[in-house]
Design goal:
With about 350 residues, the chain is an alpha/beta fold. It has two domains: about 5-120, NAD(P)-binding Rossmann-like Domain (Rossmann fold, 3-Layer(aba) Sandwich), CATH 3.40.50.720; about 125-290 and about 320-345, Dihydrodipicolinate Reductase, domain 2, CATH 3.30.360. It is built from eleven helices and 15 strands. The chain has helices spanning about 15-25, 40-50, 60, 75-90, 105-115, 130-140, 165-170, 175-195, 295-305, 315-335, 340-345; strands at about 5-10, 30-35, 55, 70, 90-95, 120, 145-155, 195-205, 220-225, 230-240, 245-255, 255-260, 260-265, 275-280, 340. Helix 2 (about 40-50) links the parallel strand 2 (about 30-35) and strand 3. The mean pLDDT is about 95.
Length: about 350
């Protein structure tokens, strides 16, 4: 038996991908699932190829002494309370974003994790993709020089044809275009540009197509970020486009630029200004959770737990920072004004 025994909370689309990724790794195995829907333990065990106990009561599952960690894949409105319950029970936590739907929920979740001393992995999994490991390598090697501008944009038409649409579109669970989905683009921009955000401005709009009329919040937002060190960034979160899924990346530095899978650098001999070099990686080009780099992320998480360390890249501190910028951006378009990050940090 693998070392860490994991219980999954919620049994939907994301949960299936979490179970497969955890079980495919070398350090953990899913042994329990808690769901509001009745589940047959024998059928679930056969489907996932390992013994799984089922629960309808989260407290009962968390009380089990042979449970080391939980993976929260429930509706967004439940994340904060379930995360706090798991932390207080002494369980390490994997949680789908968001940590909370607003600043108050974020602070409650953050404080509970810190007070309990458990380790946490937040599913900003794009940081662990081969694409952004390659991009970060180009940045860290200095091939772009000093970055001064970046844009990372999320284009994914989420309409009635999409499985999660009935609850994604609600203000209760979806909350905003940026928090629901564009958060991955914001998280990657912050990873690539580094430094502290000083101020954000954000604008909202939405499609006239009737397919997207069900959204209870603007389905497109564009956010401009001003960093304390002078860098500028932009994130578009577009849920009402009619096109293939597209995760756009453009970074500009003093010695070169990177555009999706291409980059140019003045520091590479033999290149002229009209030539791109090409990066080799598996791109983020699908919304299917089965294609997300969960296995890499979860392996890194359980490695960190073994060492008694905080997870790198997608631990608590990084996730809180991304949420803070998102909440500033959402406040900016709602109040039609620039928002200083200091307003969020001192709230």
């Amino acid at each position: 038996m693998k070392r860490f025994k994991v219980g999954v909370v919620g049994y939907g689309w994301a949960a299936g991908a979490h179970i497969a990724a955890i079980n495919a790794g070398s350090r953990a195995q899913v042994t329990k699932v808690c769901s509001s829907r009745p589940l047959d333990a024998a059928e679930l065990s056969a489907r996932h190829g390992c013994p799984i106990q089922t629960y309808s009561d989260l407290a009962a599952m968390l009380a089990e002494p042979d449970l080391d960690a939980v993976s929260i894949c429930s509706y967004h409105r439940h994340h904060k309370d379930q995360l706090i319950a798991a932390a207080r029970a002494g369980k390490h936590v994997i949680v789908e974003k968001p940590l909370g739907r607003n600043l108050g929920e974020l602070r409650e979740a953050e404080q509970a994790v810190r007070a309990a001393g458990v380790k946490i992995c937040v599913c900003f999994e794009a940081r662990h993709s081969t694409q952004f490991r390659a991009v970060k390598s180009v940045i860290d090697r200095g091939l772009l020089g000093r970055l001064h501008y970046g844009e990372v944009d999320y284009y994914h038409g989420i309409g009635p044809w999409y499985g999660g649409f009935p609850w994604y579109r609600t203000a209760r669970d979806g909350v905003s275009s940026l928090l629901l989905a564009g958060c991955h683009a914001m998280d990657i921009l912050l990873l690539c540009l580094g430094g502290d955000v000083e101020e954000v401005s954000s604008y909202s709009t939405q499609s006239a197509n009737a397919a997207f009329a069900g959204y209870e919040y603007p389905s497109t937002t564009v956010t401009l970020l001003k960093f304390k060190d002078g860098k500028v960034g932009k994130v578009a979160s577009v849920l009402d486009c009619l096109q293939p899924y597209y995760f756009h990346t453009h970074l500009v530095g003093s010695e070169g630029s990177l555009l999706d899978d291409k980059f140019h650098s003045n520091l590479i001999d033999g290149l002229n200004r009209n030539q791109w070099s090409t990066l080799s990686y598996r791109p983020i080009d699908s919304s299917d959770v089965a294609d997300h780099p969960y296995q890499e992320q979860f392996e890194r998480f359980f490695e960190a737990v073994e060492r008694g360390e905080e997870m790198r890249l997608s631990g608590l501190a990084e996730a809180v920072r991304t949420h803070e910028v998102i909440f500033a951006a959402d406040r900016a378009w709602k109040e039609n004004r620039p928002v200083k990050l200091a307003e969020i940090l001192t709230a």
